[in-house]
């Protein structure tokens, strides 16, 4: 390696190939040779590249850390409100679980992006209206509109968070794409924190159990609930101040699971035909079918966001095009099944919600598929795919708002 570096010390491309072929040996050999190559500007650049180390001690400013601690304590307080105010947990958590974390994250990005007070006031008004409305809905466990409102509320709050992330600009496609990447990083980091917290909790409970102290009720009642409430806030803080910790993980996950999802979808469709299962007459099967559709679409969107960020390669683009095409077929079947059930048994809140979601997903998949095909045909750039991905995200927000705030009145709170 030493001789190869000396021979190619002025050839940037060849040095890059050597480096990528064996990074550890290249670094060791180059650092040993550096005193001889110090006068070479290219060697100086490589030395800085190989030996640069970000400040691992940097964990945000004091004001950021204070914000995270305060927000985590407030989230923990909101999570314990049912116990503090004697509110029914069955009433409180389905309606308000999103409000435990979303306002704190919105405030964080509003602060970091220096959003105008006018925009902040609008966001506060929307949050307050959402809190009042969802808690005003009549308590009826059999109400489909109530269940739908509670199910769509996290999506509505997620879209409000996206607006805060993009600086209050709903039409900024690049910011929405960055928000998708942040969401992937948030999921990964939150999962790691939950895993670490779970292992620590299990170890602590068992250690105290060895000396005859049963601390499990205390942990379950206070530590676990408060910790879970703080996880998204802490995870967001970590991804912002230490972006190199997790920014490559969503890309790796997307590349690993995209071919698995494609194979699974094809096998599942064939198995469905062989088994004689039909979403047209089996309601539970249709629900599972739509759940599968949502999961695969989320994988496609996160994969596209990471591919657009990294530049991707033709093989990855072909794979995503095939996955979007098969998912488009699944979406078409699901949509036709919903239309069939509506024509046979009439319109209900659940069918209306699923119909709207399926129409939106079908249109989105078709549009994204066209852009992917254009990239494969060399008629468009990969950035156009990212734009096609982002342009529909506000539409999902609008649809979630319709289901939450309009459906109860249209269907008489049934």
From TrEMBL:
The keyword Transport does not apply. This is DUF4153 domain-containing protein. The chain crosses the membrane at residues 91-110, 122-139, 145-165, 186-213, 219-241, 253-275, 287-305, 317-340, 352-370, 382-411. Signal peptide: none annotated. It comes from Dyadobacter jiangsuensis. Keywords: Membrane, Transmembrane, Transmembrane helix. It comes from the Bacteria. The keyword Transmembrane helix applies.
């Amino acid at each position: 390696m030493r001789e190869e570096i000396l021979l190619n010390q002025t050839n940037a491309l060849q040095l890059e190939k050597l480096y990528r072929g064996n990074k550890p040996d290249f670094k060791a050999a180059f650092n040993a040779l550096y005193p001889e190559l110090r006068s070479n500007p290219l060697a100086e650049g490589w030395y800085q590249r190989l030996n640069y180390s970000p400040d691992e001690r940097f964990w945000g400013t004091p004001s950021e850390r204070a914000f995270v601690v305060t927000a985590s304590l407030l989230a923990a307080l909101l999570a314990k409100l049912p116990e503090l105010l004697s509110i029914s947990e069955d009433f409180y958590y389905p309606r308000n679980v999103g409000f435990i974390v979303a306002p704190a994250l919105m405030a964080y990005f509003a602060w970091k992006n220096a959003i105008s007070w006018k925009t902040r006031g609008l966001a506060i008004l929307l949050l307050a209206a959402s809190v009042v409305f969802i808690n005003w809905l009549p308590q009826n466990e059999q109400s489909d509109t109530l269940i739908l409102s509670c199910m769509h509320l996290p999506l509505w709050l997620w879209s409000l968070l996206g607006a805060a992330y993009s600086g209050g600009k709903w039409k900024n496609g690049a910011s929405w794409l960055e928000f998708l990447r942040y969401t992937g990083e948030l999921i990964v980091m939150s999962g790691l924190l939950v895993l670490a917290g779970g292992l620590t909790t299990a170890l602590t409970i068992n250690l105290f159990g060895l000396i005859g102290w049963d601390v499990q009720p205390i942990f379950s009642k206070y530590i676990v609930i408060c910790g879970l409430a703080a996880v998204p806030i802490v995870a967001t803080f970590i991804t912002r101040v230490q972006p190199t910790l997790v920014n490559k993980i969503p890309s790796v996950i997307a590349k690993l699971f995209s071919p698995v999802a494609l194979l699974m979808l094809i096998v599942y469709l064939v198995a469905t035909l062989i088994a004689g299962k039909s979403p047209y007459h089996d309601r539970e099967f249709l629900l599972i079918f739509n759940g599968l559709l949502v999961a695969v679409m989320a994988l496609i969107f996160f994969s596209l966001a990471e591919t657009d960020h990294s530049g991707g390669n033709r093989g990855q683009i072909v794979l995503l095009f095939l996955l979007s095409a098969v998912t488009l077929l699944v979406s078409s079947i699901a949509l036709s099944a919903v239309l069939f059930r509506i024509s046979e048994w009439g319109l209900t809140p659940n069918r209306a919600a699923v119909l709207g979601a399926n129409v939106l997903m079908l249109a989105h998949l078709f549009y994204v598929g066209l852009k992917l095909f254009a990239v494969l045909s060399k008629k468009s750039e990969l950035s156009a795919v990212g734009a096609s991905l982002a342009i529909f995200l506000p539409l999902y927000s609008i649809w979630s708002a319709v289901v939450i705030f309009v459906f109860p009145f249209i269907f008489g709170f049934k």
